[in-house]
From TrEMBL, chain A:
<keyword id="KW-0004">4Fe-4S</keyword>
<keyword id="KW-0249">Electron transport</keyword>
<dbReference type="Pfam" id="PF12797">
    <property type="entry name" value="Fer4_2"/>
</dbReference>
<keyword id="KW-0813">Transport</keyword>
<dbReference type="InterPro" id="IPR017896">
    <property type="entry name" value="4Fe4S_Fe-S-bd"/>
</dbReference>
<keyword id="KW-0677">Repeat</keyword>
<protein>
    <submittedName>
        <fullName>Fe-S-cluster-containing dehydrogenase component</fullName>
    </submittedName>
</protein>
<dbReference type="InterPro" id="IPR050954">
    <property type="entry name" value="ET_IronSulfur_Cluster-Binding"/>
</dbReference>
<keyword id="KW-0411">Iron-sulfur</keyword>
<feature type="domain" description="4Fe-4S ferredoxin-type">
    <location>
        <begin position="4"/>
        <end position="34"/>
    </location>
</feature>
<dbReference type="Pfam" id="PF13247">
    <property type="entry name" value="Fer4_11"/>
</dbReference>
<keyword id="KW-0479">Metal-binding</keyword>
<dbReference type="InterPro" id="IPR017900">
    <property type="entry name" value="4Fe4S_Fe_S_CS"/>
</dbReference>
<dbReference type="GO" id="GO:0051539">
    <property type="term" value="F:4 iron, 4 sulfur cluster binding"/>
</dbReference>
<feature type="domain" description="4Fe-4S ferredoxin-type">
    <location>
        <begin position="78"/>
        <end position="108"/>
    </location>
</feature>
<dbReference type="GO" id="GO:0046872">
    <property type="term" value="F:metal ion binding"/>
</dbReference>
<keyword id="KW-0408">Iron</keyword>
């Protein structure tokens, strides 16, 4: 069951990049943003999608499984941490294996950079930086109850289908109440609003 | 152990006062072997290990870029250039700890194994001879600069280590990035161990020079205990990165070689380079072995993976939001 976590509602995202700026400002990874905002239907609609680490949990996050240096630690509360800088060798395995396209590698530092759900803040009871600045509520931090009192009639999904595989996550996605089953992961290729992707 | 027996000429040069130290180095060798074996038997590490060595030892590679391996070993493992890119202060502090520890290891390990001995050159003189495996290497005078640094090499090492460790301890109480998720046993114990070893080592010299040996025995035991515990702990905590780090050189060689041959893999959707083709193939094999069931995704760049997921959401979950 979900505790306090992040809920992502792409339907509400206005693509303003406030979360990107806030993330870049954060003290624990100065200057680089760990959150991505992408425009999947660029030129045709204003649709935007913010991506943070989904904190996969099935049974261990793929990024951690493929790491040859045992650098990615999953804490007891299910948060998949940024790579341990003493161990990470910057090989990029985690970048290739993450189905959500989250981690980055800085080749000069030989170091992976990835969202850790603002562990310095969330472990102290604060919301992540991105959620505190999001003006539209596309990023919401709290419990499922808090979310549904504010937004009655939405459904919340923590399962993503990548072809045959279903990955379950610690961070949730908001979907219309009518939605059933996992959220599609995007591969194999699909159409976007009727046009080929 | 064989090295100890042979190097000390059948234990003739072996100093029995150093038995606990020598025993700890033997335990260390076992610990490291055990940890290393369990580490490289994981799917991802095993592939990296195989590919790294294969590239390093391949004959075409040695001919095409004979300097690549030594150059990488020096800049990467010796001078740790990548740490400078993380932060200059971190680089300096780590260099202090690294060279300090290396110096200490180069002095003490052969000494405790009985490889090195110092003998008086003549009954009257202030001169000494240094012998390796019983052979005379060179002689020096105790009051010369060389003589001084021979006897104080460990003190020098301790000063270097204390400088670096001091910085890291300070960082661990201040820096948000370092403080996030830090664990006492993993992040503090190694620093405290290095500090204890260095400080007790320095105090030994201090006791000898200033206190005429006051408290020497107690300090010697404290120093010994801290060194022995540190060595035994080494394979299991943070210090294991010393053993793991060279894998990065293999990884770098593996990718550099592919890059030199122009074997880049372009994203199947946008055409931007993803990684080198052999690296992606290698990763896909690891993913298949782990039954992640999604290895073809590795041929798409991270941005395309996100865009495609956004597209799928638009298409199948919440049509529109135009
Ligand atoms: S979303 Fe990617 S980076 Fe985050 S836990 Fe999953 S695999 Fe790892
Ligand atoms: S880049 Fe670092 S964290 Fe990612 S797989 Fe490689 S060693 Fe592990």
């Amino acid at each position: 069951m979900l505790g306090r976590t992040l809920f992502i509602d792409p339907g509400r995202c206005i693509g303003c990049q406030a979360c990107v700026s806030a993330c870049r400002e954060c003290d624990s990874h100065r200057g680089t943003s760990m959150i991505h905002v992408d425009y999947p239907d660029a030129g045709h609609s204003t649709a935007a999608l913010p991506t943070v680490c989904m904190h996969c949990e099935d049974p261990v996050a793929p990024c951690a499984e493929v790491c040859p240096a045992e650098a990615i630690l999953v804490t007891a509360d299910g948060v998949v941490q940024t790579a341990d800088p003493t161990r990470c060798i910057g090989c990029g395995n985690c970048v290739g294996a993450c189905p959500f396209g989250v981690p980055q590698v800085d080749p000069a530092q030989k170091l992976q950079l990835k969202c850790n759900l603002c562990y310095d803040r969330t472990s102290a009871g604060l919301a992540p930086m991105c959620a505190t600045v999001c003006p539209s509520g596309a990023l919401f931090y709290g419990t499922l109850e808090q979310l549904t009192t504010e937004r009655p009639g939405v459904s919340v999904v923590t399962e993503f289908a990548f072809g045959e595989v279903v990955v379950s996550t610690g961070v949730a996605m908001v979907a219309p109440a009518s939605h059933r089953g996992p959220v599609p992961g995007g591969l194999p290729l699909v159409e976007v609003n009727g046009r080929p992707a | 152990m064989l090295a100890i027996v042979l190097g000390s000429r059948g234990l003739r040069d072996f100093d029995s006062a150093l038995v606990p130290y020598a025993a700890a180095t033997v335990l260390l060798a076992f610990g490291v072997t055990y940890r290393y074996t369990s580490w490289v038997s994981g799917p991802a590490a095993r592939r990296l290990f195989v590919q790294g060595w294969r590239t390093a030892l391949s004959r075409t590679n040695l001919r095409a870029a004979p300097t690549a391996l030594p150059r990488l070993a020096l800049t990467y493992l010796g001078f740790q250039k990548f740490l400078g890119a993380r932060s200059h202060a971190r680089w300096i502090a780590h260099q202090l700890v690294f060279w300090g520890c290396l110096l200490a290891v180069l002095i003490t390990f052969p000494l405790t194994w009985g490889w090195f001995t110092f003998t008086a050159a003549s009954p009257q003189g202030p001169g000494y001879q240094m012998r390796l495996w019983g052979y005379r290497l060179f002689s020096f005078r105790q009051d010369s600069l060389l003589g001084w640094s021979m006897f104080h090499g460990l003190d020098l090492a301790a000063v270097l280590v204390i400088g670096g460790v001091g910085y890291f301890l300070w960082l661990r109480t201040r820096d948000r990035r370092a403080v996030t998720g830090q664990r006492f046993g993993y992040d503090f114990v190694p620093l405290i161990a290095l500090l204890t070893v260095s400080v007790t080592g320095l105090l030994l010299t201090f006791s000898e020079l200033a206190l005429h040996g006051g408290g020497y025995e107690f300090l010697a035991i404290l120093h010994m205990v801290s060194v022995v515990l540190t060595l035994i702990y080494l394979p299991f905590g943070k210090f294991f990165h010393i053993v793991q780090r060279p894998a990065a050189v293999g990884m770098q060689l593996f990718k550099d070689t592919a890059r030199r041959k122009g074997e880049a893999l372009a994203c199947r959707r946008c055409g931007e380079p993803v990684d080198t083709a052999p690296a992606v193939a290698n990763l896909r094999e690891t993913m298949r072995e782990l039954e992640l069931g999604w290895d073809h995704g590795a041929e798409y760049c991270p941005r395309c993976r996100r865009v495609l997921r956004g597209g799928a959401y638009l298409d199948q979950v919440k049509r529109g939001f135009r």
